[in-house]
Amino acid sequence: MASPGPALEPEALTRKHRLDEALRASAWRIVPHIPGAPFRAYHQATVTEVPTANGRVLSSRQ
After folding, report:
1. Which residue in 25, 48, 50, 52 has the most C-beta neighbors within 10 A?
2. What ranges do the domains of the chain cover?
3. What's the rounded Cα separation, in Å, for the pair 16 and 37?
């Protein structure tokens, strides 16, 4: 099945299928948030989910 165009594709799928691919091609790692880990642990990494005061911020990379 063909992917819908960007205007019709849900944001979470756009991140997963388009942005993650571009990040991996640029040598970035896609990793889960690790509570208590220092920010330097995420060097050249994108974090899939980050807790906030209003709940967690989710991405499609789960």
Report:
1. 48
2. 11-57
3. 24
